[in-house]
Amino acid sequence: MHRAAAKFVPRILTADQKQQGVNFCTELRQLASDDATFLCRVITSDKSWVYGNDPETKQQSSQWESSTSLRPKKARQVRSNVKSMIITYFDVNGIVHKEFVPTGQTVNYGLYCDVMRPLREHVRIRLPKLRREQKWLLHNDKDQSHTSVLTQQFLEKNKMALILHPPYFPDLALCDFFLFPKIILKLKGRRFDTTEEIPAESQKVLDTLTEKDFKKTF
Fold first, then answer.
1. Is the Cβ–Cβ distance between 98 and 209 less than 8 Å?
2. Could you please report the per-residue DSSP string of 189-212?
3. In angstroms, what CA-CA distances link 191 with 82, 86, 194?
4. Residues facing residue 53 across a β-bridge
5. What is the pLDDT of residues 175-202, one digit of tens each?
6. φ and ψ at 216, to 5 degrees?
7. Domains along the chain with CATH numbers
8. Between the CA of residue 85 and those of 75, 108, 120, what are the distances in Å?
9. CA distance linking residue 121 with residue 149, whole number of Å
10. Quick one: angle between helices 197-208 and 180-187, nearest 10?
11. How does strand 42-51 pair with strand 137-139?
């Protein structure tokens, strides 16, 4: 016998919730198999904090040393209070629309719908055929601002088809394991004194991503 520390997870899923996730993934796989254009019609979205000072990871701060050198030391740092939240929408070809949430603003139904209005315009410009035929699909997670009754009414009114997302399955959000790490890792170790600097630097990182990067994700 040995002592084992518990692994902290966001939530302990029930058997029904796990099965719901499996069913969702199976259904998506079948849709992609039956329709070669399915993934090309999906626009996925999410939001994340970008910090003005986000310490480097342990791997980033590593350095080459000889076998006789002492192990380097580094003071532990914390994230700064200067931060800005980015909301992104992207498809297989790249960023469709993005916005930074105004400082002090909560992401609620009102703000989310305000973001989706210019999104529809960007879809009309970038994907005119899909917009005309109403074939593009929006993928959201189960955030409260996405699932509210008023948000659902907005989507229905504007004929925006939605891909359902099982609850408590953040690993299915493409932004979390592709787009946001690309931005955050590039900015780690750098310091910004004001929130106004963060969008400009984040945009520089987004500009380095190519269509090939996005296609790999899907």
1. no
2. T-B-SSTTHHHHHHHHHHHH--HH
3. 10, 18, 9
4. 191
5. 777 788 888 878 887 888 888 888 888 8
6. -60, -35
7. 19-57+78-217 (3.30.420.10)
8. 27, 13, 21
9. 23
10. 120
11. parallel
pLDDT tens-digit series, residues 32-88: 899 988 988 999 888 888 888 877 766 767 778 787 877 777 766 666 788 888 999
The two three-digit tokens of residue 202, written as one number: 């984040």
**Ramachandran bin of 140, using left for φ above 0, alpha for ψ from -120 to 50, beta for the remaining angles:** beta
CA 44 to chain centre: 8
Q: How far apart are CA 198 and CA 212, in angstroms?
A: 25
Pairwise CA distance, residues 96 & 93, whole Å: 8
Taking only Cα atoms into account, the Rg of the chain, rounded to an integer number of angstroms, comes to 20
CB atoms within 10 A of CB 187: 20
Q: Which of 151, 85, 153 is nearest to 112 (CA)?
A: 151
